[in-house]
Amino acid sequence: MISELNDDYVKFELCDTDASIANALCRVMIAEVPTIAIDLIEIKGNSSVLNDELIAHRLDLIPLTSECAMSMQFSRDCDTCDGDGQCEFYSV
Ligand SMILES: [Zn+2]
């Protein structure tokens, strides 16, 4: 039952089902929200206890929402550069 709904938020109650259905719904919702991710990271100085690769990997995993994400395309689908460089159609 949906109790709240607007353009970027929905609150609903899922009843009388098991965790696999809830997990499937969660995965579909995550897949359908257009997000962008950090792909290239240059660390100029790191005085933390974490190494550069770990920090870069953690940053890669953060899904970023953006209004331009809806109009972007996958790098593999770019006809302009064949997805092998930074291109205005799939990078910001
Ligand atoms: Zn391109």
TrEMBL record:
One of its GO terms (biological process) is transcription by RNA polymerase II. It comes from the Eukaryota. Residues 11-51 form the DNA-directed RNA polymerase RpoA/D/Rpb3-type domain. GO terms for molecular function: DNA-directed RNA polymerase activity; protein dimerization activity. Keywords: DNA-directed RNA polymerase, Transcription. InterPro entries: DNA-dir_RNA_pol_RpoA/D/Rpb3, RBP11-like, RNApol_insert_sf, Rpo3/RPB3_RNA_Pol_subunit. It holds the Pfam family RNA_pol_L. Gene3D superfamilies: DNA-directed RNA polymerase, insert domain (2.170.120.12), RNA polymerase, RBP11-like subunit (3.30.1360.10). GO terms for cellular component: RNA polymerase II, core complex. SUPFAM superfamilies: Insert subdomain of RNA polymerase alpha subunit, RBP11-like subunits of RNA polymerase. This is DNA-directed RNA polymerase RpoA/D/Rpb3-type domain-containing protein. It comes from Hibiscus syriacus (Rose of Sharon).
